[in-house]
Design brief:
Elements: H1 3-28, H2 30-34, H3 39-58, E1 64-69, E2 75-79, E3 88-89, E4 94-95, H4 96-102, H5 126-131, E5 133-142, E6 145-152, E7 155-156, E8 161-165, E9 170-177, H6 190-203, E10 208-217, E11 223-228, H7 234-241, E12 253-259, E13 262-270, E14 277-282, E15 285-286, H8 292-312, E16 331-337, E17 344-345, E18 351-352, H9 356-375, H10 377-410, E19 431-436, H11 438-447, E20 453-458, H12 470-473, H13 477-486, E21 489-490, E22 499-500, E23 508-512, H14 517-533, H15 535-539, E24 543-546, E25 551-555, E26 558-562, H16 565-576, E27 584-587, H17 596-604, E28 611-613, H18 619-630, H19 634-643
Parallel strand pairs: 1-10, 14-16, 19-20, 19-23, 23-24
Antiparallel strand pairs: 1-2, 2-9, 3-4, 5-6, 5-9, 6-7, 6-8, 10-11, 12-13, 13-16, 14-15, 17-18, 21-22, 24-28, 25-26, 25-27
Bound molecules: 3-[3-(1H-pyrrolo[2,3-b]pyridin-5-yl)phenyl]propanoic acid.
3-[3-(1H-pyrrolo[2,3-b]pyridin-5-yl)phenyl]propanoic acid binds next to helix 3.
Length: 652
């Protein structure tokens, strides 16, 4: 090696030392940067890389982003932007590309004037993705040339080099998540990715986002794919969320208004259902826990509608008081704001704290909504009439709810007779199994560990809360039992659905139903109830789904349980050793076919069972799903059930 080259290499390595320390920090504490190293963190890597391309699109230089899930669960994200700059970084003595890819938080340094709008909770930078990938390969098309660099666990394998000529521009990132980091799973979920990309397309109209999954091919050999593109933006988003509901007004009300340097976009509509669907974003990030922007929206909606109703005399005959909640029954709204320095608070850091966002959204929405009501008297009247009905129903519901809670107080312990409670009173270790049917309930009662496991058999049909007004749900025996067993009480003030979680008696609530169509229906009904009336339980991660085995494979004294077809086939082969007919297979159609001991071993023993924790990845998607599965319109439900044998996206 020549001396000059030697020196160059030495410099190159020297500047790498701090970089290595940075990458090391990310690899040592990955959860600090991407939330966790489970399914969520794994998908976070994609969001991070796609966010960079979205930023390039928002800057006006890119209109197409292509995401590919490859056979080996590696991901390719390609855009047609300007390409990450590749010129020499004067201080670092390395290509700017290498700096972006390897230095923590180096991403936004080039464009100081435009703040990163799609960053925020994400926004930890592509260098984190790099550090957590066993291999990452970057290709940049720029200034007529093709540049590339490859990294292993974030460490460059060679300086940025030119590998060809091209007229196009853009950036392609290809990465494979490191299985040393993602030890739980490295498998990507198509639905999760599709939901996020669909959301991004609605939030950033005009951009085309393509998704291809080569792991899944149809009979003709075509990979599964979707194209996400929206011209109408939030208006279309609201229509998408409400596509399975009956509209109250013909098209969404759209608000686009900038107040005190905070751009505010809102689309809202009313449907004939009884639930409120409010989805909010800050810098393209879903703010599950709401925050100041949502508070500003609610304030403006209540004030403006109330003013209009008072002025128009529509409330004259109404004797009962109307509150904020009544203005939101049947409301679907998407709120999107862009904030320069967002402060995220709350348990999951998805609650906006910036106080100026409240006033901005309040003023922006108040102005435009007021004009809308003045200009659309017919729609205005429909909305106000609906509000009055909501207030009347709320009064009826309060009475019914108070009845349920008063009865509990009167009946001594207040616990339902069908509940087989556990002896511990420490909610942290207590589990409540909601079991389909009395016979399975009986086995579960015998098989359980009564120290910490309680059993509540559910016999009749759970009420479909999607189709019922609130006061009706308190008349349903199974729902009443669930509410009292859980111990949580509903608030009765402004937000009647606020839960008193401190009284929750179990921190694991496990839904255990048969592995058949009825079982999945019951599970969906229970989940819909939790989602609509006790969402905090899902948000806090207290709701689980038990996974009973589908098969028992036997040969002589050997017994093996299987949870999937593949597992069954493998075990039949293993036990049969060529003589597969010596093996017997039992298919479990219901929990009732298992004796208490089997139920314990396979499904209830904490050291052996598998539980699925229910989470709300995307509230909009979950809402869409529940209203479709449980709502009025039959056609989309039938379609969905035909396409997806099992309930879809609410699980992890
Ligand atoms: C900063 C400056 C320039 C491009 C980018 C960032 C950029 C980053 C990413 C990440 C993924 N795709 C991207 N595309 C572009 C270009 C500055 C210039 O050309 O003057």
């Amino acid at each position: 090696m020549s001396q000059a080259k030697d020196k160059k290499q030495a410099n190159y390595s020297a500047s790498n030392i701090t970089v290595l320390e940075g990458l090391e920090a990310v690899r040592k504490r990955p959860a600090m940067y991407i939330g966790d190293v489970g399914v969520k963190g794994l998908h976070h890597l994609i969001w991070e890389v796609v966010d960079n391309s979205i930023d390039e699109a928002l800057a006006g230089y890119c209109d197409t982003i292509q995401v590919t899930v490859n056979e080996d669960n590696s991901i390719t994200v390609e855009d047609n932007g300007r390409g990450i700059p590749t010129d020499m970084h004067p201080k670092e003595k390395r290509s700017a590309l290498e700096v972006v890819m390897t230095v923590l938080h180096a991403g936004g340094k080039f464009d100081k004037d435009t703040y990163k709008v799609s960053g925020g909770l994400h926004g930890v930078g592509v260098s984190c993705v790099n550090a957590l990938s066993s291999v990452l390969h970057t290709t940049v098309y720029r200034e007529g040339q093709i540049f590339e660099q490859e990294y292993h666990r974030g460490v460059p394998q060679y300086p940025v080099r030119v590998v060809g000529k091209s007229e196009r521009t853009g950036t392609t990132q290809h990465f494979k998540p490191d299985d040393e980091i993602f030890t739980i799973t490295t498998e990507y979920n198509y639905e999760t990715i599709a939901a996020r990309l669909r959301e991004l397309a609605f939030l950033n109209p005009g951009i085309t986002i393509l998704l291809t999954d080569v792991r899944e091919k149809d009979e003709a050999g075509n990979a599964r794919s979707d194209k996400f593109h929206s011209e109408g933006g939030l208006r279309e988003f609201v229509e998408y969320i409400d596509s399975t509901r009956e509209k109250l007004i013909p098209s969404p009300i759209y608000i686009e208004n900038e107040k005190s340097d905070i751009p505010v976009q809102v689309a809202l509509s009313y449907n004939t259902s009884f639930s409120e669907n409010l989805v909010s974003y800050v810098n393209n990030i879903n703010t599950h826990e709401g925050g100041t922007h949502v508070a500003g929206f609610r304030r403006a909606l209540t004030r403006t509608l109330k003013n209009y109703a008072d002025k128009s005399g529509l409330l004259e005959k109404v004797k009962i008081e109307i509150n904020g909640e009544d203005f939101r029954e049947g409301l679907t709204a998407v709120i999107s704001v862009k904030v320069a320095e967002p402060q995220f608070e709350g348990q999951t850091k998805t609650k906006l704290g910036n106080s100026d966002a409240m006033g901005s959204v309040d003023t922006a929405v108040g102005e435009v909504l007021n004009n809308y009501l003045e200009e659309h008297p017919r729609e205005a009247k429909l909305i106000v009439s609906k509000v009055v009905l909501a207030a009347q129903a709320r009064h009826a519901a309060r009475k019914a709810r108070e009845m349920v809670q008063r009865k509990n107080v009167l009946s001594g312990t207040g616990l339902p007779g069908k509940l087989a409670d556990c002896s511990s009173t420490d909610p942290g270790i207590c589990e409540l199994y909601l079991v389909e049917g009395d016979s399975a309930g009986g086995s579960a009662k015998q098989g359980r560990d009564r120290n910490f496991q309680a059993i509540l058999p559910l016999r009749g049909k759970i009420l479909n809360v999607e189709k019922a007004q609130e006061h009706k749900i308190y008349e349903n025996e199974e729902i009443k039992n669930m509410i009292t067993a859980l111990g949580v009480s509903f608030g009765t003030q402004e937000d009647s659905k606020a839960l008193n979680m401190t009284k929750l008696r179990y921190h694991k609530v496990i839904i255990m139903t048969d592995a058949d169509v009825d079982g999945s229906h019951i599970r969906t009904l229970i989940l819909t109830f939790f989602y609509r009336y006790m969402r905090a339980l899902i948000e806090n991660g207290y709701i689980y789904i038990a996974l009973p085995p589908l098969y028992l494979v036997k040969k002589g004294k050997q017994e093996r349980y299987c949870w999937t077809e593949e597992e069954r086939n493998a075990i039949v082969q293993e036990l049969g050793e060529g003589k597969e007919d010596s093996v017997s297979i039992q298919r479990y159609k219901g929990l009732g076919e298992m004796n208490p001991e089997q139920l314990w071993t396979t499904t209830m023993d904490p050291s052996k069972r598998t539980l699925k924790q229910v989470s709300i990845e995307s509230a909009a998607e979950a809402d869409h799903l529940f209203s479709m599965l449980m709502g009025d319109e039959v056609a989309p439900r039938r379609d969905f059930i035909e396409k997806n044998a099992r309930y879809a996206r609410v699980d992890v």
